[in-house]
């Protein structure tokens, strides 16, 4: 297993708030002092982060035109040729009431359903596709690289039905990470999936006392994630998400890896 301590330059999407911002401020303090590239939409928050030594910033919105992501990836690699890790943290969450389908906007391209799918899943897959040639070149040079996704415990057990589409996008991202890791066996490209529980930073509509019992403080979450990244873990489920992960995901990764190996043999 390869530790994030080996990374030289780490891109973090959705870095202007919440998990992304906290990860940027934590990872820049690693003993190897990696260059952190904080990406996000909010210019004023990026300017604030740019004042931290070791953090550079770029404006990036993964929910934008998928056709522009290739150019974005190429520009990023030209500007930061040492880039060897990406943390795909950007995401959006909406509530939909399917008992009132007339309340759900399905018009393209403004549909919140499509934006949620694109931001949380599709754009991440496209962006990874355009970053991979660079990472595979590093692999040929025996340099490790990292593709780190941020899924959700809701992608394992969708216990909040009002965010049904969000939960489905995170389940898709988690599943994709499993398959991608299996495909990249034998390279130096490491695929890691962070699986957060409910966090105190989330502004959940209709928050209940029952839900609040399951919330984890952000600093505790970041500490656990950092420990997992430094130990070279493939999957980092945290808090209640870890409980559900161990209950429902046990053996899945081994089965996916075995299937990938059999496909190569055949």
Automatic annotation (TrEMBL):
UniProt cross-references to PANTHER family, sorted A to Z: DEHYDROGENASE/REDUCTASE SDR FAMILY MEMBER 7B, DEHYDROGENASE_REDUCTASE SDR FAMILY MEMBER 7B
The protein's name in its UniProt record: NAD(P)-binding protein
Any one GO CC term of the record: membrane
Keyword set, alphabetical order: Oxidoreductase
Matches recorded under Pfam families: adh_short (PF00106)
Classification via InterPro entries: NAD(P)-bd_dom_sf, SDR_fam
GO molecular function: oxidoreductase activity
Family: Belongs to the short-chain dehydrogenases/reductases (SDR) family.
Protein's UniProt keywords contain Nucleotide-binding: no
């Amino acid at each position: 297993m390869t530790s994030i301590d080996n990374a030289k330059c780490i891109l973090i999407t959705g870095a202007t708030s919440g998990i992304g911002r906290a990860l940027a401020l934590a990872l820049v303090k690693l003993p190897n002092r990696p260059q952190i590239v904080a990406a996000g939409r909010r210019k004023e928050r990026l300017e604030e982060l740019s004042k931290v030594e070791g953090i550079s910033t770029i404006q990036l919105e993964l929910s934008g035109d998928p056709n522009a992501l290739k150019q974005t990836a190429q520009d990023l690699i030209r500007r930061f040729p040492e880039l060897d890790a990406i943390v795909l943290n950007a995401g959006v969450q909406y509530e939909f009431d399917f008992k009132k389908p007339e309340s759900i906007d399905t018009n393209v391209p403004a549909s919140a359903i499509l934006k949620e799918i694109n931001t949380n899943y599709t754009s991440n897959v496209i962006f990874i596709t355009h970053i991979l040639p660079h990472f595979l070149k590093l692999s040929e040079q025996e340099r490790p690289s990292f593709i780190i996704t941020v899924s959700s415990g809701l992608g394992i057990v969708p216990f909040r039905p009002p965010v049904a589409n969000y939960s489905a996008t995170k389940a898709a991202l988690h599943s994709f990470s499993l398959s991608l890791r299996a495909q990249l066996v034998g390279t130096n490209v490491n695929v890691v999936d962070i699986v957060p529980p409910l966090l105190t930073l989330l502004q959940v509509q209709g928050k209940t006392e029952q839900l609040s019992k399951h919330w984890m403080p952000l600093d505790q979450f970041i500490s656990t994630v950092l420990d997992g990244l430094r130990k070279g873990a493939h999957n980092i489920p945290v808090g209640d998400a870890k409980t559900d992960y161990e209950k429902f995901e046990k053996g899945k990764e081994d089965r996916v890896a075995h299937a990938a190996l059999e496909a190569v043999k055949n």
